[in-house]
Amino acid sequence: MAQQTQMDRVVEYFTRFIQRFSTVESLAEGHEDELLKLWEGLGYYSRARNLQKATRLVARDGGTLPASYRDLLALPCIGPYTASAIMAIGYNESHVVVDSNVERLLARLADLKTPVKTKTIHAQIQVLLQELLPEGQARRDFNQALMEFGALVCRSKGYVCGVCSFQGDCLS
User: Fold this and answer.
1) What are phi and psi of 99, to 5 degrees?
2) What is the Cα Rg of the chain in Å?
């Protein structure tokens, strides 16, 4: 739900959604019309349909998300970003999660002049973060911290450099 949608907008939708579809099985068995009604207002209705398709596959295979990046990518609603997030945050595996907040943070820290949405820069950011990724439990925390830091401190508008712990090292 939060892909390409502001988190503060998603909370109300998620709360209603999870009250109705609280298990993999309930979503897998649910009616598409009811799913779309709960999704109404978020847009990208194909995401809702693909989520239900994926849930049906997961339910058929025992109700647990696959624990491999490649198997996650095989599900209809999961792309590279989501698969990385599940692997890093859900399974604490050695994956980096690069959302727009993380791209912006790294671009400012390194004072990148090339837009971060280019494939080359995105790949460079992933390599850099992979090198910085700590071992063990900290992987999950590392990814969450970077996303939150970009969202709350190194924001796209109204950034707050005065409280930034990186201000002495930031090249931007």
Assistant:
1) -100, -175
2) 18
